[in-house]
């Protein structure tokens, strides 16, 4: 007797609030982030509005005593001149839905700071969106 196995892919669902994001993470659901700096306000170190878009899957995270969700991503890449760099990206999502995005860049292999830290102020669903996969 043969059995048919039906596999249904879970649809991607946009999470509309910090509470929904924390609930999904707390259940162990995979959560991804889409960032569009053009929809964020430049902060410290940023000389102009951002044009970068990108995303990541949240791996490790912390929920602080004040309700802030904090997570980060660090990775090696190359700069525009082809030199190896390390980028460290940090996200802090406040209970009021405000999001601070910061980026630090270091030269490799020395890990010396290549540029001043830059930051952007975004908001959930205004420059940054969360999805449960």
Overview of the molecule:
By secondary structure, this protein is mainly beta. It has a domain at 13-71 and 90-103 and 115-132. It is 7% helix and 48% strand. It is built from 1 helix and 11 strands. The chain has one helix at 18-26; strands at 13-15, 31-36, 41-42, 53-57, 61-63, 69-78, 84-93, 98-107, 112-113, 118-124, 127-132. Strands 1, 2, 3, 4, 5, 6, 7, 8, 9, 10 and 11 form an 11-stranded mixed sheet that branches. A hairpin with a 5-residue loop joins strand 5 and strand 6 (69-78).
Short description:
Helix content is 7%, strand content 48%. With 133 residues, it is mainly β.
From the helix content, strand content and strand pairing, which structural class follows? mainly beta
Strand fraction: over 45%
What is the CA–CA distance across the termini?
34 Å
Overall outline: globular
Please state the CA-atom Rg, rounded to the nearest Å: 17 Å
Mean pLDDT, to the nearest integer, reads: 90
Number of DSSP E strands: 11
- Unreliable spans are 1-8
Tell me the series of helices and strands, N- to C-terminal. Answer: EHEEEEEEEEEE
What proportion of the residues is helical, as a percent range? under 10%
Number of helices: 1
Q: Biggest β-sheet: count, sense, barrel?
A: 11 strands, mixed
């Amino acid at each position: 007797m043969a059995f048919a196995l039906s596999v249904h892919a879970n649809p991607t669902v946009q999470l509309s609030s910090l509470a929904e994001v924390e609930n999904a993470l707390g259940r162990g659901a995979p959560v991804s982030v889409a960032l569009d700096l053009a929809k964020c306000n430049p902060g410290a170190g940023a000389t102009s509005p951002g044009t970068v878009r990108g995303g990541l899957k949240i791996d490790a995270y912390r929920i602080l005593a004040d309700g802030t969700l904090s997570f980060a991503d660090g990775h090696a890449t190359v700069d525009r001149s082809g030199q190896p760099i390390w980028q460290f990206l940090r996200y802090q999502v406040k209970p009021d839905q405000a999001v601070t995005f910061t980026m630090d860049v270091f030269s490799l292999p020395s890990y010396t700071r290549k540029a001043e830290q830059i930051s952007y102020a975004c908001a959930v669903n205004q420059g940054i969106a969360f999805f449960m996969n």
